[in-house]
Amino acid sequence: MSAQASAGASGKGPRVGVAILGAGRLAAELTWRLQAAAGPMRLELVAGLAPDSDGLRTAQELGIDTSTDGVNAVLSHPQVQLVFDATGARAHARNARALRDAGKLTVDLTPSAAGPIIVPAVNLPAGVDGGEVCLVSSAAQAAVPVACAVSRAARTSYVEVVTTVASATLGRGARLDIDELTAASARALEGPGGARRAKAILIVTPADPAPLMRCILYAVLEAAFDEPRVRESIEQMVGAVQRYAPGYRLRRDPEVLERDTARGRKPVLEATIEVEGLRRPHFAGNLELMASAAERVGDRLARLVPRASEVVA
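^ that's the sequence the OP posted. Answer follows.
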């Protein structure tokens, strides 16, 4: 991969050319966020297929180059070194090899989970080996930090997360990916989330007025545990997420109650997470959380691009 990067307008150092592949609701939010950011990334292109899509309209309004030639436009753009793929799991499976062969780093915002699963508050990447990282879903980005916080302070044999999102926030691509999304979100809970076993459930509600994004997390605790330590671990993790996603919060203090489980009566921690949209409608917190996480991960990878030619095949 080329290590070239042009100087930013501020003159404070090189900026890495990036592109957004996909032009739906998430791409629109990410477009606004990257254009407003003052970090090491410079948004060069937003590429999709439908000319009347939210992402392309947003990019055009902001004066960013757009294309309806999809991945081909990204592959042929000489200044793009880092790509945010906000298409869908099936499309990403087709795009991934071409992007990798072209030497472009990829932040995968789909639930394909082909690369390492990243949640910024838990495991920001330290390098660019493999050329691709995956954010999976807003459900994973919301629930994994709390699951990880619990697993760091106590042994958890099982974690279950029920996520509710407003129908108005999901486009066609996201709806086609719901099966992949739930499976990959469970993998994220078992990976960076630290759970021995996990299950993820997604509810898409057409309720009017539309509710905030909400995740209810249940964690079955094993052996002896220090409840104040568990609560402190969760509190610290919530603060870490809020540094890049200020609409993220606990709806109420976590509770630990004895409940019937598949292995008998066990202490079960219940935590309810809400994510509010602060720039978009309040119910679109899932889009803002994913875009915020993508920006955070992209910022880290962009700072590593000058070394990419040494570690990416």
